[in-house]
Amino acid sequence: MTALSALWLPILVSAVAVFVVSSIIHMTPLWHKTDYPRFANEDRVLDALRPIGLPPGDYMMPRPASSAEMRSAEFKEKMKRGPAVMMTVFPPWTGSMASKVSVFAAYIAGSAVPPGAPTFVAICRYVGVTAFAGYTLALWQMSIWYRRAWSMTLKSTFDGVIYALVTCAVFTWMWPH
């Protein structure tokens, strides 16, 4: 077992490396350019939402107050009229998720891989799978249940493979001897 405290440097370096790679992927016109198309009347929609003061959270509209209301003619008419909306309102940006995934991956790998000079395969078996799971598995349910475009989920899953490989490389390079 390798102590988590011995892995603080690979945790920090892998988090920074994944943040840099993620920034490059998302800020250059690579495969995410079409993920979120610009809404034609964006300013009108934002101007209409601002006075409402929506707190950060996830919202669905129309949203019935009960299962009885969901079966009502009025609610069915709202659904027919549309639009049906699922919306996430964000708080001010708070940072990257990369460091949290790296800590979790370090904990799993540190529990299974001893200090020394383990092989790339030995480290990536734990670090890579854990990082991949942390970066991607929650994305799939959005396409399965909430109609997010599969193309977006698959592109983000590919990103997760890249992030897992970056995390593996850093941990292999910096594993305590």
Q: How would you write the strand order of the largest sheet? A: 1-2
**Helix-strand pattern:** HHEHHEHHH
What is the CA-atom radius of gyration, in angstroms?
Answer: 21 Å
Query: Which structural class best describes the helix and strand composition?
Result: mainly alpha
Helix content: 55-70%
CA(first)-CA(last) distance: 12 Å
Question: Which percent range describes the beta-strand content?
Answer: 5-15%
Average pLDDT over all residues: 88
What are the segments in which pLDDT stays under 50 over at least 5 consecutive residues? none
Number of strands: 2
Largest sheet, strands/sense/barrel: 2 strands, antiparallel
Q: Shape from CA axes?
A: elongated
By DSSP (H or I, 4+ residues per run), the number of helices equals 7
What does this structure look like?
- By secondary structure, this protein is mostly helical.
- It has a domain at 4-35 and 93-174.
- It is 61% helix and 6% strand.
- The protein is built from seven helices and two strands, in the order ααβααβααα.
- The chain starts with 7 loop residues before the first helix and ends with a helix.
- The model has no long low-confidence stretch (mean pLDDT 88).
Q: What key attributes describe this structure?
A:
single chain; mainly alpha; 7 helices; 177 residues
Helices, strands, pairings?
Layout: H1 8-27, H2 42-49, E1 57-61, H3 67-70, H4 73-81, E2 85-89, H5 98-112, H6 120-146, H7 150-174
Antiparallel strand pairs: 1-2
In short:
With 177 residues, this protein is mainly alpha-helical. 61% of the residues lie in helices and 6% in strands. The chain contains seven helices and two strands.
